[in-house]
Amino acid sequence: MYYLGLDIGGMSIKCGVVNEKGQLGYVCRAVTPIGDFPTAIRVIDELCRETARKAGIPWQDVQGIGAGAPGTVCGDIVTYATNLGWYNVPFVEELSRATGKRVAVGNDANCALLAEWRFGSAKGYDNVAMITLGTGVGTAFICDGRLLLGNGAACGEGGHMRIKNLGRKCNCGREDCWEIYASASSLQERAAALVEREPMGLLARLSGGQKVDGLTFFRALAEGDESCRQVLLEFQEDVVDGLVNIANLFRPKLIVMGGGICAQPTLLAPLEFMVNARTLGGKNNPHVEVTAATFDNDAGIIGGACLVIE
Ligand code: BGC
After folding, report:
1. Within 6 Å (CB) of ligand 1, which residues are found?
2. Hey, whose CA ends up nearest to atom 4 of ligand 1?
3. N or C: which end of the chain has fewer CB within 10 A?
């Protein structure tokens, strides 16, 4: 059985073929058209058909299409996805009309958690938090064996907890949200600032005048660069501030960290110790495990498909 999973991001939309065991096959991408929902539906429809064609799957064999969107989603409607400029858009109705398929949609972090819970690192756990560090910070929760949706399915927006008082604007209109400080974009900004500060430093030399990317940052770090280590430590502190809030609120047994940068052991390895040292009650309360997502950056695609896999 073949399904299509979509991960709709602020920069690109990824579409992948997923089978009923959660195994991911061919993946295609398109640039996200921001703000213009009808165009986005046209692009997504074409992307889905292209993915099936390139994977050699006849269109009639696609059993359903599931999508993760970066915002709040209530039933069939994407209610608020500010990074896409989508407000109360009838996603399911429009995409199923275009594709002729059964379509479902959910919040992207919820989708990533469904993928990890069903097929990955969170299998068998009843209390899990999923955190995705990407353009924004996504959070999703399974408490006592159930995915939390909240009133209007609008809960689980941990990326918008205020964690500082520095007056930095978030896309949501508020200030100092966790995602400004803990997203992959934030790490990239910090690395770019380091290149500015130290134009003769290792990171500047390795990035050779190009915009610094995550891989170059972790390479400089692996080569022992002290300034990169300092940047990483500050970033980890900000990540941990939010994780501790989450641990105190939900006391998950497991926190799964998703998004490409979390596959980097230098970033991830210290987090479990830091979180447990700082959560309320210390050793008197149950230990919180922190692990990298099994599906890394693909959890969103597989999780999208999970919405339609029977
Ligand atoms: C949105 C969330 C989303 C996260 C990751 C946040 O800005 O509010 O709904 O899960 O970004 O894309």
Report:
1. 70-72, 107-109, 132, 134, 136, 138, 157, 159, 179
2. 138
3. C
Residues 136 and 232 in one domain: yes
Taking alpha carbons only, the member of 149, 143, 47 closest to residue 98 is 47
Regarding whether 108 and 93 lie in a shared domain, the answer is: yes
Q: What's the pLDDT tens digit per position in 114-149?
A: 999 999 999 999 999 999 999 899 999 999 999 999
C-alpha 61/C-alpha 54 separation (Å) is: 14
91: left (phi over 0), alpha (psi -120 to 50) or beta: alpha
Q: What pTM was computed for the model? A: 0.95
Note down the domain range covering 257.
121-293
Q: Which of 132, 180, 257 to mutate to test the pocket of ligand 1 (most atoms within 8 A of CB)?
A: 132
Distance, CA 137 to ligand 1 centroid (Å)? Answer: 6
CA 157 to centroid of ligand 1, rounded, Å: 7
Q: What is the pLDDT of residues 83-106, one digit of tens each?
A: 899 999 999 999 999 999 999 999
Q: Do 141 and 189 lie in a common domain?
A: yes
